[in-house]
What we know:
- This protein has helices at residues 12-21, 75-87, 106-120, 171-178, 200-203, 238-250, 271-284, 290-295, 300-309, 323-334, 389-406, and strands at residues 3-8, 26-31, 52-53, 61-62, 92-95, 98-101, 123-125, 132-136, 139-144, 147-151, 153-156, 183-189, 193-195, 207-216, 219-230, 234-236, 256-261, 336-343, 351-356, 373-375, 383-384.
- The chain folds into 2 domains: 3-188 and 351-406, FAD/NAD(P)-binding domain, CATH 3.50.50.60; 193-343, Helicase, Ruva Protein, domain 3 (Orthogonal Bundle), CATH 1.10.8.
- It starts with a strand and ends with a helix.
- The longest helix is centred in the last third of the chain and has 18 residues, at 389-406.
- The chain is of the alpha+beta class.
- The strands form 6 sheets. It has a 6-stranded antiparallel beta barrel with strand order 13-16-15-14-17-18. The chain has a 5-stranded parallel β-sheet with strand order 7-2-1-11-20, sandwiched between helices.
- The protein contains 11 helices and 21 strands.
Amino acid sequence: MLRKVAIIGAGAAGLMCGIHAVSKHTEVVLFDKNSVAGKKLLATGNGRCNYWNSDQDFSHYHSSEEDLLPSIITKDLQEEVLKFFDSLGVVPNIKNGYYYPYSNQASSIRDLLVMEARKRGVLFSFDTEILDLYKEQKKFVVVDSQGKEYFDDLVIATGSKASPKTGSTGDGYSFAEKFHHRIFPVKPALVQLKTDGKFLQEWSGVRASCCVSLYEDGEFVKMEEGEIQLTDYGVSGICIFNLSRYVSLGIPSKKESLKISFLPFLKDKTKEEIFSWLDQRGEKLKDSSMVEFLEGCLPYKLISVLLDCAHISKRATWKQLSSLEKERFYSTVFSFPLNILGTKDFSHAQVCCGGVLLSEVSSKLESRLVPHLYFVGEVLDVDGDCGGYNLGFSWMSGILVGKTIRGDQL
């Protein structure tokens, strides 16, 4: 007998699930409120689609129940993802472990997925707003403006609340709650941070390499290294995005703050070794002002802010600085403090942290409460670092559930 499968959401996870669920024994219908599939996918990687990362260490994936991740994210699934994209003819352009299609266009990945889904017989129902979902005896009922339809399996692939303009408005959480699933509080992740500081307008537009350390109530949480973008509201950039989930979860109960080292090439040096380096540089540039002393290392706009914050004259040389001024310089350049006011909202976030609890689904992502109900992608309480990890989880979870429904062994 033909099994009917409904997948709510035709994004990355939904498409991958549909492709792997459809067979001569299963009819798959992908529902989406948008007029096209994979709308959010087109914006990933700044339109280039960073679809995978060669470094699949578990430290790049996060959840309120991280101990359950190894039972879901497996080596076999990781290999399945790479084999699948190779089978589509995707030639990867790999940069520092980051995978992009060689075309450098996200539309290449989206179009190949849609074509593969149609080729395998997946059906699409676009511009479809799901009005209700419930179970009637052993069947799932999907209700939209055209009426209701009955299915044997139901997959929630609606994404999170991040980037609502792409259609991700958090419907999946309310759908999950209809089936009595609990949701770990959903907050913006991979998002910009808002900070205090009278100098924000002055440094706005600057990009600089740095090491950024996050503190909660004065306790060190995590350090990230990379390029930071300094803005009129605070800070942005990949290293900031990777710290933002902790800020989202900590505020307002914890005081969140940053310390920034603007000369990351000295990160492994002791304070004494750094002062030795500064003294040697001061000897080499003994007639240079402090602006000239730093200009070979930092952007001018940033130099001006740092010297002002350290209360150091721009005309002074390193040798002319007092011991107290050198200490202030060290603290400012190597441990620049920022108090975090909060994060930007869901409209600016790439993904969310929080979602359907992993403890309420099996290792195959089937509900432990309602048989034949599945969850894939961002609707689950799993989020990843920047660098292809969130798409990676979407692919893996989609393949896992699709093959489970189809009856394949993994």
